[in-house]
Amino acid sequence: MTFHLHPVAPRQGIAWTREGFRTFFKRPMALASLFITFMFVGVLVMAVPAGGVLLVLALPLLSLGYMIATRSALAGGPVHPGQLIEPLRTLPGQVDAQRRRKALLVLCGLYALVTLLIIWLSSSIDGGRFDRLQVLMASGESTDAAEAEMQQLLADPALVNGLLVRFGLAALLAVPFWHAPALVWWGGQGVAQALFSSTVAVWRTKAAFFMYGLAWALVVGVFGIVTATVFSLLGARQLVGVAAMPAALMFTVAFYASLYFSFVDTFGQPD
Q1: Where does the pLDDT of residue 93 fall: very low under 50, low under 70, confident under 90, or very high at 90 and above?
Q2: Is 155 helix (H, G, I), strand (E, B) or coil?
């Protein structure tokens, strides 16, 4: 189908966040099962050579799969993990579907390639300090030596510069890929056209995306403050991490569900 770029009011960015949570609470277990399945498969994939590359390769399919699942949930239809790979399943003779599938795979490959370049560049700048910081945080060591090393890493300008490059370029990469998978699959656009259309769309709706990011920052910040305060008053601050795990899952699923609403407000309903 042919999509047309629609004007989007800034307040719609807040609505995208709200609708993401509303959709999650409508089908919480079903929508969460998609992400849990993705993470489970990701753990298995990481055990094979180049597993990390394959995982990054699948991220555009994850966002498109959630758009498909969200659209189905709003229509009262089924929601299941199989929707994550629905764009890759075509029947013999479906020429147009096969073309779109090939374009999606090229899009995934391009996304993985640029992501790896960003990781390589940021690692070159910080000299591997970010990787070392992740190891220390994952190990959970509370020794004086580990804490001293962590403090030293956090105060290192090279780490700060690497983080700025890493997250800054990652944010820029999200712009052309934000709507691109949906434009390829539902709009039949080629890879280059989808990346260009997504970039133009995000730029023209930048005020809505600013409010969208602000809304998410507010939700996460308020949750963190309220949770820390409540558990501190109860004298059980060690449970903050326990409460953060299901909350992180809910926020992640609601975020992926909200992608569909940003697409629909920008381009209209897919056929």
Answers
A1: low
A2: coil
Of all residues in the chain, the percent with pLDDT exceeding 70 is 93
Report d(CA 218, CA 239) in Å as an integer.
22
Angle between helices 129-139 and 144-154 (to 10 degrees): 140
pTM: 0.89
Contact between 205 and 266 under an 8 Å Cβ cutoff? The reply is yes
Distance in angstroms (rounded) separating the CA atoms of residues 60 and 269: 20
When computed from its CA atoms, the radius of gyration of the chain, rounded to whole angstroms, is 20
Tell which residue, 266, 215, 203, has the closest CA to residue 15: 215
The closest alpha carbon to 198, from 177, 212, 171, 170, belongs to 177
Structure tokens belonging to residue 17: 């966040």
Question: How big, in percent rounded to 5, are the helix, strand and coil portions of the chain?
Answer: 80, 0, 20
Q: Token digits for 112? A: 């993985």
